[in-house]
Amino acid sequence: MAKQLVLRGIVQGVGFRPFVFRLAQEEAICGWVCNGATGVEIHAEGAEENLERFVSRLQAQAPPAAQIARLEVQPSAWQAYRDFQIVDSQQAPVPTARISPDLNLCADCRCELLDPADRRFQYPYINCTHCGPRYSIVLRLPYDRGATTMASWPLCERCRAEYENPANRRFHAQPVACAECGPNYRLENGGATLAQGMRAIEQAAALLRTGQIVAIKGIGGYHLACAAENAAAVAALRTRKFRKEKPFALLARDLAVASGLVEIGPAEQSLLESPARPIVLLWAKRELLGVAPDQDRLGIMLPSSPLHELLFAAGAPAALVLTSGNRSNEPIAYEDDDALRRLAGIADAFLVGERPIARRVDDSVAIVRQGRPALLRRARGYAPGAIVTLPATEPILALGSDLKNTIALVVEGQVFVSQHLGDLGEADANRAFAETVCDLMAMYRVSPDKVTVVHDLHPQFHSTRFAEQFRPSATHAVQHHVAHIASVLAETELLHERVLGVAFDGTGYGLDGTIWGGEFFAGDLTAGFNRIASIRSVKMPGGDAAARLPLQAAAGFLADGDALDQFGARRLESIGLAGRFTHALALVRRNVRCIESTSVGRLFDAVAAIAGFQREISFEGQAAMWLEHQARQVAPQAAYAFPRFDHRPLFAASLRDRLEGRSASEIASAFHAALAAATADAVQELAAQHGCATVALSGGVFQNELLCEQISALLETASLRIVFNSLVPANDGGIALGQAALMALRRRR
Ligand code: ZN
Ligand code: ZN
Ligand code: FE
Questions:
Q1: Helix 480-491 and helix 735-746: axis angle, to 10°?
Q2: Where is pLDDT greater, at 275 or 259?
Q3: Buried (b) or exposed (e) across 102-141, using 16+ Cβ within 10 A?
Q4: Residue 43: HSE in the Cβ half-sphere, 13 Å Cα cutoff
Q5: CB of 145 within 8 A of CB of 137?
Q6: What is the mean pLDDT of residues 490-513?
Q7: Ligand with an atom nearest the CA of residue 130
Q8: Whose atoms come closest to the Cα of 599: which ligand?
Q9: Distance from the CA of 34 to the center of ligand 1, in angstroms?
Q10: DSSP string computed for 176-209
Q11: Which of 354, 506, 580, 671 is most buried, by the most CB atoms less than 10 A from its CB?
């Protein structure tokens, strides 16, 4: 008998066709396999029981990096094939086959890389069908060598033989190459080439040993590296990169080196060693001077590319700072000329790789929460993997939020979320945003006049203006915090569940034109959401500037209530509530340059300012992270009173505590307990009132692990299902998915 099979999911560029070929040999199946535009297509002829085994083994024994989302099996006409073949890719009108994310170096390739007898010994671009770059080199679909940045390196005879041999691990491995025929690395400085190939890597390792900063071309862009244990080198990197305090990520040579720096449990280990090789935030065992000031955790990753392995083999320091190659908030540089220009004042030398990068893909950042990975930044190793399937037949383009932007494209119901693109206020990030829109639309052949565009409600967002120009006739605005809640529902596939949504974050444009960020909603994706409660609103002086200045946020909250009246100016001055604070307070009292706000992000900032964090923040969320760090330094304190999110008693108590000399840690702890208790109380009351059995919590504030743990603990005995983000970030990186889900389901109303 004969069957026609179509497999969808991540099935291209992961060694699937050779796997099918071998399976067909073993089960005496004739016919063919090819990469179609919608996935892998198979025509299989054979005895009934063989066919049955063939189909079940296809699913059970698929290659490690493959993810089968759907398998369709249909009877087909017997065509009396005499053998089984891998045939050329077909071009079809709508490619919905998912391109694989970039994969880390596999164990087999690693052995060859370090084996002096292997012909790819020390070759920095070694790869096979189980490993290597994908998304960062693909120019268009379907995924074939000619459609990648490897197109300009013709295969040598030996590579070609491997590429064409179905029994070989490199059969149709599109980026396959060797030192003879493929690209290589060189070390450059000031336009001069200092060394090439392994010599270049050895010299780079030597420079790193002596405390120099080296720009290194990676999979999705340039990194800046220096020895993590060399405080002077780390300090120099901070100065040159204009990065004052934001933590640096580390690349550890191996698990043993990583274990010397951070606590690693089984879940953490498997995340560190997963094919995506994200940066994982882990509890630090010791401090590395200047690497992550005021943090309890260190961001660590393990080698993901052959180049990383070779650097360590050549004697690079066992722990390297490895941070994106840019200045301050700019996007990571990925083109050679641009990198050499932009990083000229930062790097002492450049390790330039010849293989072009098709698009920038930053490192992903993840954390382990209750034994499960949760992504904080979704990029290399994950993007552009489809996240979920939505009931949408027409294409949807969701433009996300302006901060931590990602975009999402829905094609035939599959949601593809882009890599993290950064803050659109930056010109380069804005360009990357426009490029990625075009890139994804072209890759999936979605024509701009057929797509519905969803954007944030904020009228001044770059993404909103982009939407208006891109497709004025078919754009829809979605409220920011509703999108946060929708992101959790989409990724947990609660598409029709009525839920209580809790959105706590920094800023978002509210339906009433004020700044929201401490909101409760009831509803579902189809019917929409109603705002049913929020924290007590205050007048925030200076609008957006308050987000950078904790003292300004403190003025906003303290002006609301009589806490200040009880203390003279001199006493307030003694705890730093003067200068900028007094000025901001005057603005609030005259109601000048103020905007109404219910932001929990600002609530954190205000409490941080009272507890002692009063300088201007140098990265988003810094004051809130400092407060969480403080709270972890002491045993849990009794909660401040915070009745129904009226913060006046909370501020009165924390201000008094500070004036009486209570420590920042104790104040921070009492505040966390207060917010967790108020939230848990409100959740139980509102869920009962509005008939919700499920609670979805999202927004940047829920990156605060301490708060999440405390809320979860308080709700443990309540018969409610509690869901958080994990596949997409709880921060604004998840907004695009939420927007897409709201649009897809709104159409069904
Ligand atoms: Zn491999
Ligand atoms: Zn070759
Ligand atoms: Fe947000």
A1: 80
A2: 259
A3: bbbbbeebbebbeeeeeebebbbbbbbbbbbbbbbbbbbb
A4: 16
A5: no
A6: 96
A7: 1
A8: 3
A9: 22
A10: ---TTTS--EEEEETTEEEEEHHHHHHHHHHHHH
A11: 671
Ligand number nearest CA of 156 is 2
Centre of ligand 3 to C-alpha 377, Å, is: 14
- Structure-token pair, residue 164: 């064409």
Q: Report residue 70's pLDDT band, with 50, 70 and 90 as the boundaries.
A: confident
- Residue 202 pLDDT level (bands cut at 50, 70, 90): very high
- At residue 96, does pLDDT exceed 70? no
358 in Cβ contact with 137 (< 8 Å) = yes
pLDDT of residue 747: 58
Residue 542's pLDDT is what? 87
Planar angle of CA 384, 389, 394, nearest 5 degrees: 95
State the chain's maximal CA–CA distance in angstroms. Answer: 95
What's the one-letter identity of residue 193? T
The string of pLDDT tens digits covering residues 130-178 is 899 999 999 987 788 999 999 999 999 999 999 999 888 998 899 999 9
Average pLDDT over residues 53-71: 88
Residue 29 alpha carbon to ligand 1 centre in Å: 27
Q: Which of 171-175, 229-233, 259-263, 374-378 has the lowest mean pLDDT?
A: 171-175
> What ligand is nearest to the CA atom of residue 128?
1
Task: Provide the pLDDT for residue 289.
Answer: 95
The SS3 call for residue 698 is strand
Distance 106 CA to ligand 2 centre (A): 19
- Residue 106 CA, ligand 1 centroid: distance in Å: 4
Note residues around ion ligand 3 (Cβ under 5 angstroms).
Answer: 505, 732
Ligand positioned closest to the Cα atom of 176: 2
User: For residue 333, how far is its CA from the centre of ligand 1 (angstroms)?
Assistant: 26
Q: What is the pLDDT of residue 90?
A: 62
Ligand with an atom nearest the CA of residue 109: 1
Q: Say yes or no to pLDDT of 314 above 90.
A: yes
Q: What distance in angstroms lies between residue 154's CA and the mean position of ligand 2's atoms?
A: 8
Q: What is the pLDDT of residue 17?
A: 85
Burial environment of residue 476 by CB neighbours within 10 A (0 to 12, 13 to 18, 19 or more): middle
The rounded distance, in Å, linking the Cα atoms of 157 and 261 is 46
Give CA–CA dist 675/622, Å, rounded: 18
153 CA distance to ligand 2 middle (Å):
9
Q: Rounded to the nearest whole angstrom, what is the distance from the C-alpha of residue 502 to the centroid of ligand 3? A: 12
Ranges of H-type helices in 492-568: 550-558
Give the residue from 571, 568, 542 showing the smallest Cα distance to 556: 542
> Any bridge partners for residue 516, and if so which?
508
